[in-house]
Amino acid sequence: LHDRSFIIFQPGKRSFLGNAQVTPPKLQQISVKEIEVPVYVIPRSELKLSGGLPYVKDFEFASNRSLVARYNPGTTPERFYRLVVHETFHVYQQERFDRGSSSPACRYPYEDFENAYLARVEEVLLKRMLTRGVKKVSRRDLTLYLAVRSHRYGLEEGARAWSIEGWEETVEGTARYVEMRYAVAAGYAELEKELHQFVGYLSQFQPASLQKWKYYRTGASLGTILDALGFPEWKSECEKNNCLYPFAASELAEDVGELPDEAMEKRVAEFASERSATEQSLTHYLTRENKLLEQWSLQGKIRVTVRFAEKGHAYYSSRGTTFATDDCARFVSGILAFVDKKYGFEVRRRSVLFKNEDSGYWLQFHHDLKGGSGSIDDGRLAMIPGGYSFEREIQFQFPDFQLQFKGHGTVTVTKDALEIRLD
Fold this sequence. Notes:
Shape: globular
Radius of gyration: 25 Å
Largest sheet: 8 strands, mixed
Helix content: 25-40%
Structural class: alpha+beta
Number of strands: 21
Number of helices: 11
Strand order of the largest sheet: 9-10-13-14-7-21-20-17
Distance between the termini: 37 Å
Strand content: 15-25%
């Protein structure tokens, strides 16, 4: 990243540019005692970015190829540092990873209670290793963990579970590992305390994390254990679609094969008390998913659907629950913003449902469509049931929802729904 400029973007405020490769014209230069390179002030009007920008993004500004990082008020230096490291690893380093030709399954097999129970057994085994301390972890400890995990992947829903777990550990687990190690190197954290936080996370079964969030911790933990056992080469193997679990399973395949069946059965039986709690927790979570879907329509009387002709231009930030539906759509509750700059689309503070398809993607949310207006071409769009087409542009400007697209498409209005198709 030495050949990248660095922009600290503050939505609604002035931003800052450092490490400029090309001296930017007309920007005020300031001196910052702790920074050796010149720092330039970017007026709010000069940086055309949405407040819903991802934390880190590759960006061209004033002839500088830049890494732009969004700074939110109140973010501590440590938190900002961690976010930049984590997201920079996604943007610039993981493009080298070979993730194979297959994509992860849409939805985690939540309904498979046996898979969930064995996944919980793995969590307890991992927790024990971390509690003991990675320097005291033995090959046998890791072998037991791998044996249970390998057995689970051989069950009916194992392939579906692995497609998600392997993908997320490769993507998010490695990024969390890098974030953690850099935080330790910078003096923001101690490795033992970082791993102790993982112990706390693994102390109880968390069904909502099975789709994604769990694997930040399991991936980073497994990488740290492999380091401690003398397998640092796992990192380079991530570029060969052999990251973390498959690498460990390959390296310790002989150990797993020599492990008596009764050894694994003993460990699984030892945690039998986890079964009931796991099943109850999973049932509660599935009920919560259904409740979120039921409450979704309360966010507005009109169901708005926007169909985009291309995918790959959108990003969103969320602090709510995210899960996939059976038809491969993704429901995201409590988004801060969902933005597609190519189509001039942005929706905030809503729960949304969206799905990628071969021809593009579609997105749905609920809104009352009050306090604003819509227009197509040169005229105001009357919200009267019927079908309308536009040839030049469409605009919607409402609280928490805007669309400014130059092109052609169609609009369909019904009593309780609005569908916009952008060609």
